[in-house]
Design brief:
five-stranded parallel β-sheet, 12 strands, four-stranded antiparallel β-sheet, 22% strand, 223 residues
């Protein structure tokens, strides 16, 4: 049974999310503020964190920032802010997805399942190489020049989807399809934030921007 850590300072929302997640077969832990969330993440080792942005003590941005220092646990942000800039900041800090309040509990459960599915190894998985970049698909590990690189689940799935077809131009919608199974139109701009993170971690040379269209994985240089 996979464990979800729900972090929200509103008991009614926490209980609502808990009820739906437990009905879906998940074990649920909860925290009411930022410091407790960090403690729970260390002790309970959740498979995914549902994290409200407007927390007392430490807000969701700071909690995400601190979690990402030593963990790649998937994070779905809950936010009452409908400002796209706030959402993109959260994604650039390393969140995998976001849901805006008020939200549908069924949609949240679907998002949780979608993010967790990205962690599953794929049939016929293999090791992909390009230059000094190595992607171990079944183990979800990335190395650049022999050194391990920590990518979030979403970042890994985006990079591997493009690396499987070097040279192919992917639109943002197609990349969303690759990581969610269905395209969330309001989430397309978030792809840019994830791509920015991937470039920062593995090197900008591997992902090219095709202006007005999308992105592609750079063809390996011929030896």
């Amino acid at each position: 049974m996979q464990t979800i850590l729900v972090v929200d300072d509103e008991p009614k929302i926490t209980q609502l999310v808990r009820d739906y997640l437990e009905r879906a077969g998940f074990a649920v832990r909860s925290a009411r503020d930022g410091p407790e969330a960090l403690m729970r993440a260390r002790t309970d080792h959740p498979d995914l964190v549902v994290l409200d942005l407007g927390l007392p003590g430490l807000d969701g941005f700071e909690v995400t920032n601190r979690l990402r220092r030593d963990s790649s646990v998937p994070i779905i942000m809950l936010t009452a802010r409908d400002d796209e800039a706030d959402k993109l900041v959260g994604l650039e800090l390393g969140a995998d997805d976001y849901v805006t309040k008020p939200f549908s509990p069924r949609e949240l459960v679907a998002r949780v399942r979608a993010v967790l599915r990205r962690q599953l190894p794929e049939a016929g998985a293999e090791v992909l190489r390009a230059g000094d970049l190595r992607l171990d698909l079944p183990r979800m590990r990335v190395e650049v020049g022999g050194r391990p690189v920590d990518l979030t689940t979403t970042e890994f799935q985006l990079l591997s989807a493009m690396a499987r077809q070097p040279g192919r131009i992917f639109t943002r919608s197609q990349l969303l399809d690759a990581i969610h199974g269905v395209a969330f139109e309001s989430y397309e701009r978030a792809i840019d934030a994830h791509i920015k993170n991937i470039r920062r971690k593995v090197g900008a040379r591997y992902i090219e921007t095709v202006f007005g269209v999308g992105y592609r994985f750079a063809e390996p240089a011929e030896k």
